[in-house]
Amino acid sequence: MLVMILVGTLIFVDIIMAFSLGLAATPHKNVILENTLPSEALHTPEVKALTKRYRTRLWQIALIFSMLNFTMFFTHYESFLMTLFWVLLLIPMGAFYGTEIFYIRQMAQLKVNKGWQLPVTPVLVDTKLTLTKNKKMLHFGYLIPALLLSLGLAWFMLRSQNDGAAILSISLVIGWFIAFACWYGVKRLPVAAPTNVEKLNRQYNDLTKHDWSIVAVGTAYGILFALGLPFFASQLTGIWAQVTIWLMLILIVGFSFLLVWYLIRLRKKQDALLNQVTDYRYQGEDQYWRFGVYINPDDHRLMLPDRIGINLTMNLGRPAGKIFMGAIVLLVVGVLFATLIPVYMMDFNKEPFSAEFKNEELILKAPFAASSEIKLSDIQQVALVNELKKPIERTNGYGGENYSTGYYLVANKKATLYLDNRVRPFLKITTNKRDYYFTFKEEEKTKQLYQNLAGQLP
């Protein structure tokens, strides 16, 4: 099951990358592949041929790596499986990005060869529009209910003593602040004047601010549902828990497609406005998009619209932009090692799980999992079992094909797992509030622990 999820995720990412980067080959504000061309040059045979080759290369990369993703079905070690997942995630991203840069340079060279240079126009300052630039965007008040609901739900989660409550509650608050940062970034966007017609510039800016503020506010409520539903699912039993989980998945997928559709719709509306005029104000910004991202240390803006027309991007020439990009890289590296180190320790350590008696307690440990200190006096029963009773739900921990560690709900009761799923039987330790499931890599050692533990109980 895990392999199918990972392969499906990688194929989905490959398709999304090919589709989204392919949008750069469709003219928007006279920009195609990060190069601004005269209106009469946008649909010439040379430009069409170049953009067609670009899209073809993107989909070829997506197809090749989508096929390579199926090699994950032939890995036996879980550590190799997760390593292959990261390799097949990061290398295609590099290939897509490298292809984009290559064809940006090809378009720039074609522009020079054909003499399609545009005169640089001075920045047009519209004082009236600047003073009223945010009149169409959603007010901050739309974010307040989401904040109150997030804080209230976080407080309720913490009081519930659910194993995953702390992480979910912190994620709720952080999620709201991310949505607020998006909204604030939209508010701070300076006025754009892509044409010489004041009315069109006003309509263009009002449309952009309004739609992007809706996305920011919608994100705040979307995060609330995405994190709230798993918590409530953990409080339910039987079929209702499964229904809630499926509802959450449907909402997440639906919200993702709705977001993409809404932003593409915004781009079409922007193009419809710009197509009403034949002139386009070019301010010499092509040189700052040579790598597909905006790098201009002399521009005071930190956030600005991307050239595709469906997103906001960050000025990597600013110190804050560099810090943000560095933080993203560190986060990715941290997640990579956090997912790989535990499975390598479990795969290639002779005995990754440990159990020891100390001071009338049984202490259970596993790599990168919380230790459990179980008082012998709290143990009600010990048994050897071959299967976990369903339903089984992971609330906080690792759950793969071969290993399960961390906090779970097993048969609607809190449980902590330290399991090699390939080894039978499992040692089940029952206490009043929680069950514990444990196994060594060797069956006989698990049985010996059971006998030792049973001998020490009243």
Automatic annotation (TrEMBL):
Domain annotation Bacterial Pleckstrin homology: ranges: 357-448
Span of the signal peptide: none
A Pfam cross-reference name: DUF5808
InterPro entries linked: Bacterial_PH-related (IPR027783), DUF5808 (IPR043831)
Residue ranges crossing the lipid bilayer per the database entry: 6-25, 58-77, 83-104, 137-158, 164-186, 212-233, 239-264, 323-345
DUF5808 domain: residues covered: 297-322
Organism superkingdom: Bacteria
Keywords carried by this UniProt record: Membrane, Transmembrane, Transmembrane helix
Protein name: Uncharacterized protein
Species whose genome carries this gene: Enterococcus dispar ATCC 51266
